[in-house]
Amino acid sequence: MKRTTRGDIPLLADGRFVKSAAREFVPVLNPATQEVLARAPMTEAKEIDRAVAGAEAAFAEWRRTPLSARMRLMLDFQRLLKENMERLAQSVSEDNGKTLEDARGDVFRGIEVVEHACSLPTLLMGETAENVARGVDAYSIRQPLGVCAGICPFNFPAMIPLWMFPLAAACGNTFVLKPSEQTPLAAMLIAELFLKAGAPPGVLQIVHGGKEQVNMLLAHPKIKAVSFVGSAPVAQHIYREGCRNLKRVQALAGAKNHMVILPDANREQTVSALVGASCGAAGQRCMAISVAIFVGASKKWIPDVARAMAKARPGIWSDKNASFGPVISKAAREKILRLIEEGKAEGAKCLLDGSRCKVKGHPNGNWVGPTLFAGAKTNMSIYREEIFGPVLVAMEAQNYEKALAIVNANPYGNGVSLFTSSGAAARDFQSRADVGQVGINVPIPVPLPFFSFTGWRGSFYGDLHVYGKQAAQFFTETKTVTARWFAPGSEARANMTIRLK
Ligand code: NAD
Known about the structure:
Strand content: 15-25%
Number of strands: 23
Oligomer: single chain
Distance between the termini: 57 Å
Largest sheet: 7 strands, mixed
Shape: globular
Structural class: alpha/beta
Bound molecules: nicotinamide-adenine-dinucleotide
């Protein structure tokens, strides 16, 4: 099979990896060295049309493929993903920069979704009611939509493509995937494995590109539904544009996740959780903790957090001792450094400053070291903006109610956590925090795929979330059938006729 992750990355069209006719390519860089790993084509409009037409043609047969056959494809796909875990993790590390251990987690989280897709048939079952009128039964069936599209961010190059197309395909749809142009390598390997597992040509098509190609997908009349994961401004654009074009849209957006620390929490657990949740993956997780609200006396732990964070150090993905990798691009690093300077200028106290971080032997990497601010206020840009780097913003609140009010006034609502030993506080918090995913003594409360991934407010646009039951609903239409099986009064005769035959 043609190598899909070096040189000019191919498109996946009707079961074959083909060279794109694109006139423009963007380099895919190793963020620790700036080495050009490959080039992603900015797919031409006619190639996008062909991808959608191929997916539409494949849909006719794929929707008729028995559920059990679709499920078996997912079982084989899951086995191949597991067998190729190391290869996949390495490709995630290469273009994203995350440590190998982190990359394994990225792949594993995606595999869990494929495992869930194996049990999808039960989620596609309809409901039946007999005798809704005399001699009339009613029932609902779930049917696939047709061609769906997925648009991915850079930060989980394996997991997020796997959030999208396996569930859509298991529901009987065909899918056009656009990986992030910054981190497309893992998606190509995943596609190879999907074909090897037996996916028919056209069930998964891959196109590459950026804004322009996304807009072509959003405008394409044959695409029925769009699943997007990325930053808040782009998510708003995708939701508006997709809805304007009368498509079904789910758009998972940016975040500003808080951890509230009560004085009765376990100090060591809290400090260690804060370091991992803020610096892990260089802070480039949509569920990373970027704000810590210390309530009352817990503020005396802030220096402990600074000491523990100072021990975390970045490095290249193959460095076993590195706590995290570089940030994705020079532009991302510049944005983070700008926000660090703004934080200082606005009066927050920078207890740990990672802006001048260097990694020996890798002078060109997009390095940012662990950074901690204390005394931050809600009007500061380090509090308002998503930094998406290894930067933790510490604030203080006099009491629990004031901390909760800060969480609920923030425009985002992806994840939040409370550290406490009080069951009463925990129960109150899980009920009153206006955020989709709540952790109690769990810093990054990402649900397993049999629950939904449920950002709220500015972190999500749409109504049905990814994963599980809601994904099955997103990728299918409900059809209700009301059936009068026989002409009124003729049941007895009809039955007799059958018997006579
Ligand atoms: P991004 O919004 O820059 O890009 C996401 C995708 O949109 C890419 O495929 C890109 O090509 C495309 N795109 C970029 N600009 C566009 C435009 N103007 N019009 C149309 N398409 C455009 O996001 P990113 O930097 O790749 O990813 C990081 C962001 O994703 C962070 O904000 C993070 O919080 C968010 N994220 C959210 C979740 C979640 O579950 N809520 C999960 C992962 C990442």
